[in-house]
Amino acid sequence: MSQQQLESSVLPKAWKHTIIIPIPKPNKDKTKLTSYIPITLTSVFCKIFERILAHRITHFLTSQKKLNPNQHGFLPFRDNHTAIYKIYSAISEARKNKKFFVAVSLDIKSAYDSVHFDDLILKCLQLGISGKVTKWMHHFLQERSFQIK
C-alpha cells in the first residue's frame, strides 16, 4: 500500500484532517491561547505512512552523507546525549590545550510552526530526495483541515 500511495500522490481527505484537543496548562490564564497545549489526532494510516516515509528519507540522507556531522536531533544513534558528549569532548580538548571554547545555542520559538512549505520542498529537492517523495509531501501539506474539540 505504501508504494502505491507514494506513486499516486493522491491522499484521502481523512489523512489531511486533524482533530485538535486543547489541554489547559496548569495555573495559566485560560483566556489566552498560549495557555493551552494542543494535542492533535490524525489518521492512523497517515501516521504509519509518515513514519515509513521519514525512515526512507532519514536512511537516504544518512547513507548519502547529506547531513552535517554535527546534526544530532531526530537521527538514529545521534540524540541529545551524543551532542552533549561531543560538546564535553570539545571543552575538555580546549582546556587541555589551554584554549578557549565558544558555543552558541539557538532555541527558535515555534520553529515547526514557521516552516514555509515551498522552501521545505525546495530543500528536499536540493538534497536529492526523489520527486515522488517531494510531490507526496507537497500534496500532504496542502489543503489541510482541522477541527477543535
TrEMBL record:
Superkingdom as given in the UniProt entry: Eukaryota
One of the protein's GO biological processes: DNA biosynthetic process
Organism phylogeny: Eukaryota, Metazoa, Ecdysozoa, Arthropoda, Chelicerata
PROSITE patterns: RT_POL
Coiled coil: none
Protein name: Reverse transcriptase domain-containing protein
Reverse transcriptase domain location: 4-149
